[in-house]
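QA checklist item 7 of 12: single-chain prediction sanity check.
[x] sequence parsed
[x] length recorded as 329
[x] structure emitted
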Amino acid sequence: MKCLFNLVLAIGVLSSSASYAGLSGKVVMDGSSTVFPISEAVGEEFQKENRGVQVAIASSGTGGGFKKFCHGELDLTGASRPIEATELEMCQKAKIEFIELPMAYDGIALVINKKNTWAKELTTAELKKIWEPGSTIKNWKDIRPNFPNQKLSLYGPGPDSGTFDYFTKVINQKEKASRTDFSSSESDFVIVKGVAGDLGGLGYFGVAYYMENQDKLGLLGVNAGKGVVHPTTQTISTGTYAPLSRPLFIYASKKSLERSEVKAFADYYLKNADGLVSQVGYVTLGKNVYDMSIERLQNLRTGSMYSDPAAKASASVVDLMKANAKNKK
């Protein structure tokens, strides 16, 4: 797992953010497969410095993670989208208070087979035509007349994935609205294998997984009406890679944070975030935002910045955090 190996090396050269001597216990985290590689590597490094703490990290998707988190089964969960109203209600009914912590910016990569020489980019209108419910697009030639007569095979995240939620919302204008006749998996590596072995394959997932597997896959640009844009550090952080760029999050249970091992892990995660997220193809939020996240953690600022109907998932994380901090004072 090259991505994880590189990240462990990257974290290894970072200085410890604090001393957590004498810790013991267990930290349980689940959630987004997009956030998973960073969390797993942080967990491994944290355990090296804290032999008495067991860090268990799984990847059941953003939605799957929230289901467990809002039933009190997890200490933290990773998410590739903000918590939704139904999940907020679920947590409120179970009296689960949480701290919402932005962690990185990410882009959704559109990937094709390495031997696909005809497709360089797709428009958002074409993506909708391909992925919308009831779509009859089954051949690349159905997308554009100049594309070859090649069967189109689709691969994507499963319905518990935050990437699936976000993609369907911005492409099909309705969350979870998608054709169902595609190969779905909560594992991005399964999607990589599928597209890499299928000449007519087209799939999508977090750009970090493309970066790790760019020797196996091709990358498409996206045209939302303002020209073709590819996912890069600059286009993702500025929102130019529209509409397929988004923030990533960690949600920490307030009750779990009463345990020193959980509080130390969350603190360690945030204080090392600025130096590690770019190592796996994500885009750093910058020291200023991580400092604000650390302040949210230390002061146990509960709730979601996105619970206000006026807030949007694509809105500036910096602006939302500043506004939220001001309102909490």
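[x] summary fact logged: The mean pLDDT is 89.
[ ] second reviewer sign-off
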